[in-house]
Amino acid sequence: MLKNLVIVESPAKAKTIEKFLGKEYKVMSSYGHIRDLRKKNFSIDVENNFEPIYEIPDDKKELVATLKKMASEAQMVWLASDEDREGEAISWHLTQVLKLPADTARITFHEITKPALEAAIKNPRTVDMAMVSSQQARQTLDMLVGFDLSGIVRKKVPGAISAGRVQSPALRLIVER
Fold it and tell me: Can you give the pTM of this predicted structure?
């Protein structure tokens, strides 16, 4: 039986971290987000307090199945995605999709060194739902406002790729207020 499964965002980090932690740890990558807001027929469940509706993209289904299998075989799962709000959301999505308990260990570190990893493992926490909510709000506003605005910006500004993420919804809220 697998003793410890650590899930990080990046496959490059996974290899390095596994070397530092040793044989009792299997380190795998989520390759970033494992699910996203539904893009086709984007909607939010208005009946359920505006809950976003998520789906696992086709290109992540095999990875999710592998992570589920490994998590079910592990004695302990450690969520070690990045320390920003995107990383926090990735950890939360992992708890949801892999059906992990809410108190699953969440570890963060600022450098990939043996002492930093050992310190993180000695001081785990749980997923910070305030940061997850922040990411959900940003992503939902981006979907509702930013995507449409990006199309207009691309037509009007030569060489423009998008209207940005937070800036577009924030500007709209300010203008409407």
Answer: 0.84
